[in-house]
């Protein structure tokens, strides 16, 4: 008998061998469109993001560790991330990690997934899921302006195209200070008249940048534009000027989480552009409890929550 276990190893149920899915496997097993539906599913079934555990940040000798735990009854899971500190000279990605998926009752580890690919699927899936019904309400071609040519900017384009396939055409143009040669969509330089023209006619604007300061102002946008802000995830950073939120229908994943972590929301409240009572939960929009006005601007600010990673990880596991 192993001390402290209370029963012999031979009396334990047979433990499954934990599998590992790398980046390519994760992306092959779940399409962007399926990831969007995986995010919507628990909300439609009654899950309330307000009940989700908080993200835990642990300071380390060098950098931080972030833990994002969640459970849904059938599964439990945690995303474990290692974050390099500002100014790090280590020749590694800023964020690295893995996702551990366990049985919901046994808590037996079943699957280990590459966290980067999971996040690549999850982040745009959340953003698109929150406004999917509004996007699908029209059959007109959709002009999209995307700030940020990195992994997330590209993943948002892929997710939009997949989620709206057969419903409406999606035309993406990237706005960036750099013009990557491998970008498969047209791009324009930020801060130029051409980029202002692109953003000014876009029905959907996405900010997926690492900028700590606003990259979009209200005067650049159509009055009825949909804005998805996904880049900033701390209270002291933001991608949108507060005037973008003023008078808009502002959606967040969870109101309490947004007030803790969403700088675009926190700073807009501090500037009296909006109040906390103006915020609309994603759950209410997806379930149809709140109907959005297509004639007014919609802003959906996301920060990433543990339940979302679990929802996508579960969909990957059940498709593997």
Automatic annotation (TrEMBL):
Matching entries from InterPro entries are given as: NAD(P)-bd_dom_sf, ODC_Mu_crystall, ODC_N
Q: Which PANTHER family match?
A: KETIMINE REDUCTASE MU-CRYSTALLIN
State any GO CC term.
Answer: cytoplasm
Q: Which residues form the signal peptide?
A: none
Organism superkingdom: Bacteria
Q: Could you tell me what this protein is called?
A: Ornithine cyclodeaminase
Write down the species: Corynebacterium glaucum
């Amino acid at each position: 008998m192993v001390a402290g276990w209370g029963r012999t190893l031979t009396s334990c149920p047979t433990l499954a061998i934990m599998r590992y899915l790398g980046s390519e496997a994760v992306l092959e097993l779940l399409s962007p469109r399926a990831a969007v539906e995986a995010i919507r599913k628990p909300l439609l079934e009654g899950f309330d993001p307000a009940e989700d555990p908080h993200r835990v940040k642990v300071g380390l000798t060098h950098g931080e560790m972030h833990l994002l735990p969640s459970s849904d009854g059938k599964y439990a899971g945690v995303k474990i991330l290692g974050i390099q500190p500002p100014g790090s000279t280590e020749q590694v990605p800023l964020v690295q990690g893995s996702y551990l998926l366990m049985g919901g009752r046994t808590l037996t580890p079943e699957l280990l997934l590459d966290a980067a690919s999971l996040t690549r699927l999850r982040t745009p899936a959340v953003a698109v899921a929150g406004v999917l019904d509004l996007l699908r309400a029209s059959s007109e071609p959709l002009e999209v302006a995307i700030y940020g040519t990195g992994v997330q900017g590209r993943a948002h384009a892929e997710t939009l195209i997949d989620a709206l396939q057969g419903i409406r055409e999606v035309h993406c143009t990237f706005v960036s200070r750099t013009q990557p040669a491998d970008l498969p969509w047209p791009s324009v330089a930020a801060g130029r008249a051409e980029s202002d023209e692109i953003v000014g006619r876009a029905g959907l604007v996405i900010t997926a940048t690492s900028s700590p300061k606003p990259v979009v102002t209200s005067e650049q946008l159509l009055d009825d534009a949909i804005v998805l802000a996904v880049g900033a995830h701390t209270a002291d950073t933001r991608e949108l000027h507060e005037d973008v939120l003023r008078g808009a229908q502002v959606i967040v994943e969870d109101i309490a989480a947004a007030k803790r972590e969403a700088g675009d929301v926190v700073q807009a409240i501090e500037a009296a552009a909006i109040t906390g009572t103006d915020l609309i939960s994603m759950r209410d929009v997806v379930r149809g409890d709140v109907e959005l006005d297509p004639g007014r601007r919609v802003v959906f600010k996301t920060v990433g929550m543990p339940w979302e990673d679990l929802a996508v990880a579960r969909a990957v596991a059940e498709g593997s």
